[in-house]
Each structure stands twice: as structure tokens, then as C-alpha cells.
Amino acid sequence: MELTEAIILSVLAASTPLLLAATGELVAERSGVLNLGVEGMMIVGAACGFGGAWLTGSIIIGALCGMFAGVLMSLLFAAMALGLAVNQVATGLALTIFGVGLSGLIGARFVGERITPAPHLHIPYVSDIPLIGRVLFGEDGFVYLSLALVVAVWWFLYRMRAGLILRACGDNHVSAHALGYPVLKIRMYAVMFGGACAGLAGAYLPLAYTPFFIPGMTAGRGWIALALTVFASWLPGRLVIGAYLFGAVTILQLHAQGAGIGIPSQFMSSLPYLATVIVLVLLSRARTGGSTAPAALGTVFVPDR
Amino acid sequence: MQLILEKRAERSRTVALASPLIAIGLTIVTMTILFMVLGKNPISALYVYFIVPLADGYSLQEIAVKATPLVMIAIGLSLCYLANAWNIGAEGQFLMGAVAGSWIAVKTQGTGAGHWVLPAMLLLGALAGALYALIPAICKVRFGASEILTSLMLVYVADLLLDYLVRGPWRDPQGFNFPTTAEFDPVATVPTLIEGGRLHLGSILALIVVAAGAVLLGKTIKGFEIRVVGAAPRAARFGGFNANQLILLTFAISGALSGLAGIIEVAGPVGHLQPGISPGYGFTAIIVAFLGRLNPIGILIAGLFLALTFIGGEQAQITMKIPLDVTKVFQGILLFYVLACDSLILYRFRIVSSSPQVARGAH
What we know:
By secondary structure, chain A is mainly α. Chain A has one domain (2-286): ABC transporter involved in vitamin B12 uptake, BtuC, CATH 1.10.3470.10.
């Protein structure tokens, strides 16, 4: 019972950064922009988030610093990929390479420092119900925020006119442009939203997951978030399932290592990455008929008069 | 007043030649600002970065040694990128080549095996790299899975495999528990070109690879097909070129070259297998490929330039206490500027007085 509860709690914690980053990327991709710089935005968000929290002692300010850093990084991407019509794949890679270096530079002075991690919700009596009490009512704020964000994004994309326009830009930017919608401006907002989410996801790691900063602590989570959008067929609801499945794989391999079953730890550690490859293959294979990806995803758009 | 991007009638040749130089210039300006922010004297920092490594023979050799893997990997990557196939897992293929080649070195250790050992290691390294690169390529061609994500995921897997081997079965029993294999036998080591120097045979191989790449792209039909598939997929379809086959081919070549670079690095400058054999060669090679404008000769020059920044970065850390991450920031900024300047080959900026009002229609 205790162990089950501990496992579920750690799965939720491991899934939250994936869910946050993937939600942001989903919106960007739905507008037609493939931003491969999620890993770079996350790692800079982690360094700035930790820095903000350590300097001010406030988790909320830390989270805001992370988001702000993510937005700045995404603006760099937008200037290149939207403003200068540069290939999105190459720009995203550049953003990640740049971000890894920058976060090391920013975070160098925070290495070895500790903060008090984000507090967990505690409602008297309710949070003490065995098993479900802590799982449902005893998480840190980010977990609830990430789920609320998914609902909000779903509502925005499918229940609001603005969401429809955003999806139109992602499916056919020429038509959207012909209808008079400012495709590049809409895409820029979508990319900025993605940056804020990725920055927050990165900040979650040193603010709530582990209470300290280490260089390279995102360890490929940004890339897994990118794979999750494919896994989810660009649907917000499925993102939740995907993120929690990947969180579960991460945590279960840790517990398996702890339990000391005879498999070398490195093989267990490689499971999340191998699972990503296998899932991508299975899903892509399942829909050989027609792709569910936004039709204009990753293509350059230069409006002509 | 508004700044808009407009397609040029034809590619600008002047900008095409000047763009890498403009990019390097802009990067140096940005770095000057960064050094000032870090509280370092920018002039002496730039001097340490770009001039000091050129001043003595040892550093010059070291630049060639660092450029060797960068150039080899980048030549392969340029083929992929020209064909519009996005292999970004060269780092993993590099590590797999290193692991596979080291297997022979570890197994023949102390057995007095003959001179076949090194050629066999190089061959197996290249083969392993090619096979490892074919995994994402096949997933792409057969199932339509994004090669970008799968090739990158396999980097982490290769890294963990190497880690397991040097901590487990291949660990040097006399190595004081350090995660490393024993030092390779002389027959399993890439010979140096100068007695007591650092420059090794691998650098010659890199030059051969550059020449082969130039011939493949410039003189052969396969090279032509690669370029057409990337630049004009529709035309390639009409021409009857098999795009899937070209993805497999470019990935295999790219993987083989990365694997070869990996085993040369291990059997050459490093001398044994251990974690951290690559300071991110597979990723830096992406920058080399773009800075070299996906052209073999350009890549050779770009590889030497980025190798210079590695050495300069190390010097700056030792003499001026500038963190090594500055080198990574530098490389990232450089790639941004290269891509931005390349965009100006195809487009130009134009100032328009006011944007024409688009009729929204009455809803």
C-alpha cells in the first residue's frame, strides 16, 4: 500500500514536466511550427527557474523566471524560423545546442546550492485518506497546473474561434493567409506559448522534482516531449495518457533498479528512450493511411503580397 | 513602414560566398559582448580563443586531431541533409563505432595478434555505425516514424551501452576501479604521423573522406540524385529516383563515417574506451555541416575552425577562467547566424510603406 502510493506519487512527479512541455509544443505544432528546441528551452528554464527561486526564496518567482526564459528562447526561434524563414529543423537544433551551453553558463554558480522544494497541497483529513488522499489531494501545485493547462488548451483548440484559426494556420497556411489571418503573428504567439510551457517544465525539475540544479538535468526530456505530441496524434487528451505512461516507464525502471533484479542499471535506464522509438514506430505504422499531423507542420511560410 | 521578406529571383552568389564569413563576424561581435558581460577583457579573450592556438606546433596538431572526427561526421551528415533526411544521432553512431571497434581491441589484448587488428577495428567500427544509423532510417522508410526523434533517442541508448561495458565486462582489472578498458595494444592503435606527436593517420583518412565526398556529390549520378531529392522532391519523383533508397543510403554512409570517426578517436588520441570520449562531436558536426554550406571543401574549413574553438575554449578556461560552456554558447550562436545569413541567399529584405489592407469581408 505504502509502496503503491509512493510509486504513483513519483510517476505523477516524473510525468508533469513531460506533460507541460508537450502541451506547449502541441499548440506550436498545431499552428504549423515544429520547434525542435524544446530541450534547449527546458534546460534554460531549469537554470533560470532555479536561479530565480534561489535568489528570492520564492518558488512562484522561480517558476515565472523559468517561463520568461523559455519565452525569450522561443522568440529567438520565432525570429529565425518565422521572421527569416529559416528551416525549422535546423533552427530548433541550433536552439537546443545554444540552450545547453547557456544553461551551463547561467547555472554554474547555482551548482551545489539547495532550495526548499515546492510545497505539496495538504487539505486536513482529505489528504490523509489512504492511497487516494495523497495522490489526488497532496500533489505540488505544478501537477494540478499541468492538468488544468491541458483542459484549457483543449478548450481553446476545439471550443474557441481563435483555436480554430490557429489550427487553420497549421493545416493550410496559404488559405489562412488568403482569408486575411496574420499567419506569422499567430504562429509567433503559439511558439511563445510553447516556450513558456517548456521553460516552466524545465523549472519544475529543480523546483519540485529535485531541490537542486545540475547541468544537463533535463536529460532528453524535451525530446521525449516532442515524441509525445506524435504519440498523442496532436490531441491534448491523449497527451495526458502518453505523459503518464512515459512517467511510469521512467519510475518503474528506477524501482526495478532499486529492487536489484539482475539486469544492469544502464539497460533499465535506456528503457524510456527505447520505449520512445518503439512507440513512434508502432504509431506511425498504425496510421499509414493518412497522417494526423497538421498538414503544414514544419513548412516555411513567406507571405507574398 | 514595414520590413518584409521577399524571394529573390535567383540565388545571390555574392551572399552565398560571403554568408559564412558574415556569420563568423557577427558571432565574434556577439562573443565580445558576452565576454564583457562575464567581466573578461574581450580583446584578450578573443586572442586566447582564436590566435593563441595557432601560435605553436603542438596546438596546431591538436586542432587537426579535433577536426578529424568533426569533418568525417559532417561529410556524412551533409549527404543526409542534402537529401532532406535528418540524421541528428551522429553522436550515437560515433559511440557505437567506438564500442564495436573496441571489442576487437579488448578481445585480442595481450594475445600477440598481428597487424590485422587495427584494419579490422576500423571496418567493424564503420559497419556498426552504419547499422546503428540504419535503425532510424528503416523506421522512417518502412513505418514513417520521424527519423529526427528516433536517431536522437538512440544517442542516449549508445551512451548507456558504452557506460555499461566499461563499468562491467570490459573494465580494466588493473584500472583501480575506474570505468575504462585497459590501454589498447600497439597493433590496436592508430599510428601517429610524427614521432612523439599527436597528429595521427586518421587525419589523412578524413582528407580522403573529403575528397570522396566531393567526387560523390560533384561527379556521380548518385550524388546528383541526392541533391535533387532534397531540393526538388517532385522533380525527383518524375525522374524516377527512389527517395526511400536514398534515405537508407545517406544514413548508412553517414553512420559509417561517424562510426569510423568514433573508433579512430578511441584507438588514436584516447587510446582506450571510456565514458566521455566525445565532447559532443556528433552535435558539433551538425554546425560544421551547415557552416561548410553542405559542401565537402567548406566542411573541411569549417571543421578546422570549430576545432580551433574547442582548443581556444580549453586555453581560455585554463588561462582566463572562462567556463567551457562559453564554447557551446559560441557554437550555438554561430549556427544561428549561419542559418540566418543563408536565408538571405534566397530572400531579401524590402521596406514597404504600409501593408495593404486585406478585406476581411462582411461576416
